[in-house]
Model the fold of this input.
Amino acid sequence: MPNVTQDTMMFRVENEENNAATVIHTVYEALKTKGYNPINQIVGYLLSGDPTYITSFNNARGLIRKLERDELLEELVRSYLKDK
Done:
């Protein structure tokens, strides 16, 4: 009979290609390059979930859609509080 535990295990895989911080920076630069206000566009996407707020330039839209919006928000809050 297998050893069964009642404890919840947590397993998290950090894939550098899908890292939220990297995606946010890449999307920011793509928006800036195309002449958009990156902050406004990213906030619009986070609030609405509408990917058309993000340019498809440099595959920014595809990258941001690989992550859940809560993952992006988590990274933004982590980054903001890191220096506080």
DSSP finds four helices and no strands in the chain. Residues 19-79 form one domain. The two ends are 50 Å apart (CA to CA).
